[in-house]
Amino acid sequence: MAAEQKSAVIPPKQAKTDYPLIDSDPHIRRVFGYARPSDYAVAGGLGAASPLAFWVMERVSPSHVGRGGFAPVMRLATAVGIIGGLHILYQRSCNRFYGFTENTREVEMDMREMVDKVKKGEPLYGTSQVSPYLQGVAAQNSRYAQLFSHIIPWPNLVNHDRHGVDTAKYYQQAERELEAERLSKLGSP
């Protein structure tokens, strides 16, 4: 059919949280970029637990699998640890985007990033090669998907403009900053 499909914009549900919502569907780059050093430390520690546990079990109660039997198991345990560590890192960072945990640092980072984009005239959430219809589909499929990521990992890989926040605050802050810069230039000799 030649008729263009139109996307029905379904407004995102607003969860009641103790902290402000930054983004209900953060792009995977933002999730890893906003992660705190403590997230990386926890992820590394929990990721190392899997191979360490297999090594301890082998020392406490040897399996006697013979030569070359332990190495494949350790590779598997390491892969499980890496995947689990990345999942924990992603989950902790997303929880701050959603406002489920303390997110003062991320709110400030988000405001700075978005205001800088406004000042440069760039789109807030990046440009996309995908049609607006597919952007809507992607947004509906990955919004709050982290809450179910232990079953189906579904990170947001699509740039779109449906993130559940009022973007006017970025434009207002950019206006205030530009006005302050203009006034400081007028006042300086």
Automatic annotation (TrEMBL):
Q: Which stretches make up the NADH-ubiquinone oxidoreductase 21kDa subunit N-terminal domain? A: 17-102
**Membrane-spanning intervals of the chain:** 40-57, 69-90
Every copy of the NADH-ubiquinone oxidoreductase 21kDa subunit C-terminal fungi domain together lies at 111-182
One Pfam family assigned to this protein is NADH-u_ox-rdase
Per its UniProt entry, which superkingdom is the organism in?
Eukaryota
Q: Which UniProt keywords apply?
A: Membrane, Transmembrane, Transmembrane helix, Ubiquinone
Q: Hey, what's the signal peptide range on this chain?
A: none
Enumerate the InterPro entries for this protein.
NADH-Q_oxidrdct_subunit, NADH-UbQ_OxRdtase_su21_C_fun, NADH-UbQ_OxRdtase_su21_N
Name recorded for this polypeptide: Putative NADH-ubiquinone oxidoreductase 21 kDa subunit
The species is Aspergillus calidoustus
- What taxonomic ancestry is recorded? Eukaryota, Fungi, Dikarya, Ascomycota, Pezizomycotina
